[in-house]
């Protein structure tokens, strides 16, 4: 095994697949096995972590298995067999059912933003492709102005309408438009969106870079307007059926061509009406920074450099940006919302941990299958793990501003902040973080419960630690641990398929709360991209 990680501190230690084996066995009809002996345990739990470091799916039969284990122990099980399911039932609606938060995306948008051919660069403009030349002076808008926008009648249907909207609020960094004839948005709600975006914009751009045409000396980009356009309307997939909380679509950077590009020719993004109503105070900044990151990402990684954008990487970066919302609002002296309102929409408290527990084995880090909200929960959890263990907000900053995308971008950022560390190193230790709980842990342990503060371009960004095993975060109530919550992502010992770049945790009721000794015999993986190790907690 190429990646070795051993430490003993408190009640945590690791036994890697390349060391501490007692003997190999391959005689007679017995399969080839490697045995591991765990001695002098004191009320410890054992977990088997499997890592697929490759970019292809590994079949269950090739991923290795526990052949046998023998115990010379006193075991006081706290869990039953039913607490370790083979494959947990997916709950696609879990997160979207909470507080009306809607995330499911638009596959056409994902494909377009990732890899749609860029237009031919117009003569006289060598730095980037432009939908239209920059205006000599920015457009002047006033509250109450009307403007038509191209939107789909129903999301993903391709039935385009040119509909009027009214300018409801003007901020320093945005114009907020509300679609005529849709859900009525009170004036103060539109103004709240503009106020929150004015707080988010300087913090986000210091971290992520500017949108196309934005920033000091910017020419306003596609529409010549230094403000970002935000359109609030009813984003529906059918009558009265909400399709998405919001979206960014790179088509708006292209020139309008009837039947091809229904472009609004502006740096803009879209927000569903329901997401800005009265009970959504704390959710709005999450939504704004998520979509704004997509706009910046497309501007700098696709539009200016022509790179193909992996959706998993783009969405993970938006979720990483969301992770910093609390810190951004906390640092503001003019926030119209409270920290309590922001915290109420903390992704972990909204069920991200539960959604991840139930579904993380179904999608690897570099997958994006859009399995409901599960894809977003996986992106959030891995991104939050990266920042809390490998550089904080500075890691996101390096990823956003470097000249690569996907795994190479992560590798480049890590090389600057953690020389000698790469993406596969972080993936390898991801399983370690998944079984870490509590607040006491060695300084070099991979954990979620670590608070990290970074200074980027003169701004301070703080990520608060959290404990995935706590009711307080996993279920939004109480503060104690519960075995069934702890076991949601722990599979039994039956091998399962390993998705690309994934980590899966296995255990058994007989491996929980052990005092004494136990020997575990493992049939090693047949696929060379699979590595494994044990954690004793």
Describe this structure in words.
- The chain is α+β, with helices and mostly antiparallel strands and 537 residues long.
- It has three domains: 8-80 and 503-536, no CATH class; 87-96 and 335-491, no CATH class; 117-309, 2-Layer Sandwich (Zincin-like), CATH 3.30.2010.30.
- Helices cover 27% and strands 22% of the residues.
- It contains 13 helices and 20 strands.
- The strands form five sheets. It has a six-stranded mixed beta sheet with strand order 1-2-20-5-18-17, covered by helices on one side.
- A hairpin with a 2-residue loop joins strand 11 (236-238) and strand 12 (241-242).
- Helix 2 crosses helix 3 (284-303) and helix 3 (284-303) crosses helix 4.
- It is elongated.
- Computed over alpha carbons, the radius of gyration is 25 Å
Overall average pLDDT? 81
Biggest sheet character: 6 strands, mixed
Q: Low-confidence stretches at least 5 residues in length (pLDDT < 50)? A: 1-26, 73-99, 121-133, 471-485
Which CATH first-tier class of the largest domain would you pick? Alpha Beta
End-to-end separation? 22 Å
**CATH fold field value of the largest domain:** Zincin-like
| Cross-sheet strand order for the largest sheet | 1-2-20-5-18-17
User: How helix-rich are the residues, as a percent range?
Assistant: 25-40%
Tell me, briefly, the overall form. elongated
